[in-house]
Amino acid sequence: MAHEIYHDPSNVTNPEHAEHHIVSPLQYCMVFGTLLVGTAITVIAAYIDLGWLNPVIALAIACIKAVIVILFFMHVKYQSKLIKMTVGAGFFTFIVLITMTLSDYISRAWGMW
Amino acid sequence: MDNVIATHPHTHETAVPAEHEHVVLPQHRHHFETEEQQREAGSFGMWLFLLTEIMFFGGMFFAYLLYRNWYYPAFTVASNQLNVPEGAANTAILITSGFFMALGVWAAEVRKKGLLVVMLILTTVFGVAFLGVKADEYHEKYEKHHIPGSSFSTAMFTNPAAYGLKEEPLAPDMAEHTQIFFFLYFAMTGMHALHMIIGIVILFWLTWRAHRGEFSAGYVAPIENFGLYWHFVDIVWLFLFPLLYLINRHPLK
Amino acid sequence: MSTSVPTLHTIVSLPDQSTATLPKKHYINNEHGLLSWLLTGDHKRIAMLYLISITFFFFIGGAFAGLIRLELLTPQSDLVAADTYNKFFTMHGIIMIFLFLVPSVPATLGNFLIPIMLGAKDLAFPKINLLSWYLYLIGGTLTLAALVLGGVDTGWTFTTPLSTHYLNTHVLTAATAIFIAGFSSIFTGLNFIVTIHRMRAPGMTWFRMPLFVWSNYAASILMVLGTPVLAIAIVLVALERLIGIGVFDPAKGGDPLLFQHLFWFYSHPAVYIMILPGMGVISEVISTFSRKRVFGYTAVAFSSVAIALFGFFVWAHHMFIMGVSNYSALVFSLLTMLVAVPSAIKIFNWAFTLQKGSITFETPMLYAFGFMGLFTIGGLTGVFLGSLGMDIHLTETYFIVAHFHFVMVGGMLMAFLAGIHFWWPKMTGRMYPESLSKLAAVVTFIGFNLTFLPQFILGYLGMPRRYAAYPPEYQVLNVLSTAGATVLGVGYMLPLLYLGWSLKYGAIAGNNPWQATGLEWQIQSPPLTENFIETPIVDYEAYDYEWLEKKQREEVTTVG
Amino acid sequence: MGISPVLWQFLVKWLHASALFPAEASTISPYTDALYFFLLLMTIVGLILVGVLIFGFSIRYRRERSPVATQIEGSTLLEATWTIIPLAIFLVTFVWGALLYFRIYDPPANAMNIYVVGKQWMWKAEHPGGQHEINALHVPMGRPVQLTMISQDVFHSFSIPDFRVKREVIPGRYTTVWFEATTPGTYHIFCTQYCGTQHSGMIGEVTVLSPDDYQRWIQQSTSGMSLAQNGERLFASMGCNACHSGNAAARGPNLAGVYGSKLTLTNGSQVLVNDAYLRDAILSPSQHITAGYAPIMPTYQGQISEDGLIDLVEYIKNLQSNFRVQQTLMTSESNQAAPTTPTEGTTSETVKP
């Protein structure tokens, strides 16, 4: 019997495990400020006619805000690789749904079929 | 029998904060080896649940993307009927609510019971405020006959001048498609609001438990996991707001 | 421990029946009373609850299959009217897919075994596990309610705009049932993934996990990521029906194909949810009865994950003739060809596991052989349907019916029965009657082929599926198929009877009747409530029969 | 021996009447069957291979002969073999299947067109000459026939197994399928997409006639009005000619000769005018405004049946000059609802009344 193995390394340590990190209130305040500023910018930008850039900017700001929330409010920055991959997998599948379905709708216009 | 089994010493090899040592929490479920394992399992489970939420909203986001491309003129004018100031205010309110939730998680982690309760109450208050503004917006849609169904009216889009709008009138067939926009608006914001309502109910329960001091002795998993849920609901709104309210204000010609 | 010397043609080694008893304390007699079952958190008890409810729904679904086959005995719709027939096949589909196939192996065998195989005391979230059984029950009850109230006739695919605007049956009830049953499956998958990541015993590395765990892991990923898309599609159908929102209604500018996309985004991966856990069972059974490590363990493990990944990229092959763009059809057809490869890898790896083994032919092995043959046919006929030009002629005919029954019934149900027989001694502590069960396996195999092989020919002839009446020249093959279904019915009734009998009269099985290597076989049968007396430490690879022999030798010398 | 002669005769007749393989009655059939036999061969070889492995190993390595197993980890070479060979076969199947797909769904340019409307639960075929058939279709042998199909309610699927063709019939959108029948006779038409209660009753027969018989049939079964003539009436009675008069100052674009041309729309995109475009332009005109025209056309969604739309499409398809448009405009202005007996051929499809 191998008594020397007490813990499966992959079970209790990396890459599925991360130290419990406490994010400081100061950091939360900074994130909060950034999010409010982002909201203000996105609203202002919407009232300026930038042509095709309007939706791009609006969605880019939304993405940045979402990433900030995920990283700090949801602590993913301090989480294990496993959690990071899980988050990634979710968005990956979402993109598969969008792009693969869209491939049908876009290419329907290419031919008369 | 059972000679695969060997004693497994419960050593905490990982650096657990000092005050966690030697305290077996009453909430520790004994099928977990360590509290650390329990906590990580809980948050991993929560994340997996959020993945299902991404895919759930994903179906509606795709429908929005598709029909916006198909019926672009209808979507732009219909979108301009949404109340941007209220939407922007709601975004700020929701971010504030999320901010207090994050502080609540911190308060639980550093074991400040009173602060935690206050933060949870603030989170709830702002969540309810969001729903209040949302209700006002829904009411506005009701008055404008923009709720899909039998009372839906395209008059505002076929004859904008009569309503004091500067937009070009839509052809009747295109104006009919504004109904799809409003349906998606109600489906997406409604589904979001439903998540908020569920969240607020859970918040009441958590506040009560926090008040009893359940989360002030190192057991913070419910607060953390609920925080994940609440922030996820925020994120959905962060996308709904620009998609529904903002990106259609300057239609391409 | 095991006293009887095993003969050469079997590896079964049971304790001396004159002295053997069941263990004094185990998960079944740990607590008493109905409430101790209904409020249990024990994964093994929940597995048994699932087993009972799934069997119940299987036989209801099977009864509908019987009625369908009976109606098709004659070309006219004379046994039942067309609308009743439509309700029959809809009920058969909904029950078999959402209430039997999707939860079958994961919720019963997976629930029972995954924590034990990992060396854990329970699943990560026992309460959520119980919740998912209740959700399953609510979904099942609503399905039965839809049935009792007058039935539903959309077909299990809920094709819009038929389901939204043209049918006057209990579509909403059935849709709610599927929505709720879907969440049951999400929670099961979520529980498995967390358990597999977080609850492994010391030494249980990823590549020491039994392949059964790998395949359930892959299926769980599909459950978690796919099912919510079905949920939203169903919600939109319900809203369309209730308030006529027009998202799927071409008259209002909606696109009925959008529903197809959302529906198949789940329902194609769903077939992998159904088959993958069965593949896991086959890996365990083949290895145990040939006394050999599974040939190319890593390839088999990764092919499960590959199927789960590719499974998300091929859904539109259900829509080749439904009006997707031709370019899209090309891409989806190509990807479909790729997803067929991991299944081929598995079949050959299992076949070569037999090479240089020491093979015996107990019941689970017979079912596993049946699985391999039938799944080969089912898989290869899938290539017919993935091939664009061939699909035009074959889709929506009995060919496709035969194809998915070969995969789902010939594959999954065979695997389910293999698994039930294989782990029956572990779950109940008693053996089933061997010769009777071998007979059942053979009867099932013969009945199955007689039922579904004629349907391939019918399909190529062009007989459409979901027809209550058909042109008379198709009758001979339909009669054959119905005759086969009768045999098949006997094949499914037999296990119900003798497994029930064995609960009281079966031989005492002992810890490890098959001399298998999995952690679950190293503990008592039936297991204790928390599975292990002390947390096991795993220091051997999966399917290490030499380790097992060494261990048994040591045991003998210690006892001696 | 014990079997009664009557029963025996019945059995023989019954088995004799049963089908095992569908007739090859179109030019596509041999191509489909070739791929089918290739795939069948693949399946049988695969099954035999797996069977031989299982039975061979089971006999050779059964416990009686091989009491102790030899542990083998795996073999990268072998595993690569059974990854690459199936992959290669599947890719061949993909290419072959794709070629067949385009052969089946790409109609030849000279195909004659017949419209098919699917509705719960019948097939309605409309020949350009005005012949209408319910659950039946008469086609000539040796001539490519294209079906332009649409559903009036739910998804249907038009299938002729003996021709190996099938295509979903979709509400709100034209789909096409084509075939060239090779053998006279009658063959089944099935609806293969589940479409409600009488789904299994939505069957019909396609009759393949020799060219002479077909001509005879065409002449005997006309209703007197071609689709285009029906369309012309509809065009006038819906008031389409008020705007689409072909005058230089008309509010709507000139429709003569528009079919098959490339139009530039107000949003700058170029479109090919085909059946689908014409139908969409009638139902949702605002998305199909020809460049230079104001979006004033009302929608006809819900006001014209699919049959009526087919008439209009067929009318515009065959509209070569605006002479009769203006004629009917004048007659309708003089309070006559529809034109009287059609005069000499401005519509290309003329049928003897």
Q: What are the SSEs and their pairings?
A:
The complex is a heterotetramer of chains A (about 110), B (about 250), C (about 550) and D (about 350).
Chain A: H1 9-12, H2 25-47, H3 53-73, H4 81-108
Chain B: H1 35-70, H2 72-79, H3 84-109, H4 113-143, H5 155-158, H6 172-176, H7 178-211, H8 221-246
Chain C: H1 34-38, H2 43-71, H3 82-101, H4 104-118, H5 126-148, H6 162-166, H7 171-198, H8 211-243, H9 256-290, H10 297-310, H11 326-353, H12 363-386, H13 388-394, H14 398-428, H15 434-461, H16 475-505, H17 545-559
Helix pairs in contact in C: 2-3, 2-4, 2-5, 2-16, 3-5, 4-7, 4-8, 4-9, 4-14, 5-7, 7-8, 8-9, 8-10, 9-12, 9-14, 10-11, 11-12, 12-14, 12-15, 14-15, 15-16
- In the CATH hierarchy, the third-tier topology of the largest domain in chain D is known as Immunoglobulin-like
Strand order of the largest sheet of chain D: 3-2-1-5-8
CATH architecture of chain C: Up-down Bundle
Radius of gyration of chain D: 28 Å
CATH class of the largest domain in chain D: Mainly Beta
**Greatest contact pair?**
C-D, 100 and 92 residues
Q: What's the number of structural domains of chain D?
A: 3
End-to-end Cα distance of chain C, whole Å, is 11 Å
* % residues in beta strands of chain D: 15-25%
Structure description:
The complex is a heterotetramer of chains A (113), B (253), C (560) and D (353). Chain B is mainly alpha-helical and 253 residues long. Chain B has helices at residues 35-70, 72-79, 84-109, 113-143, 155-158, 172-176, 178-211, 221-246. Chain B has one domain (34-246): Cytochrome c oxidase, subunit III, four-helix bundle (Four Helix Bundle (Hemerythrin (Met), subunit A)). The longest helix of chain B is centred in the N-terminal third of the chain and has 36 residues, at 35-70. Chain B is elongated. The N and C termini of chain B lie far apart (79 Å). Chain C is mainly α and 560 residues long. Helix content of chain C is 66%, strand content 0%. Chain C has 17 helices and no strands. In chain C, 70% of the residues are buried. The model of chain C is unreliable at 1-5 (pLDDT under 50). Chain D is of the alpha+beta class and 353 residues long. Chain D has three domains: 24-64 and 76-106, no CATH class; 112-220, Sandwich (Immunoglobulin-like); 227-333, Orthogonal Bundle (Cytochrome Bc1 Complex, Chain D, domain 2). In chain D, helix 5 packs across helix 7. At the C-D interface, helix 3, helix 6, helix 9, helix 10 and helix 11 of C face helix 1, helix 2, helix 3, strand 7 and strand 9 of D.
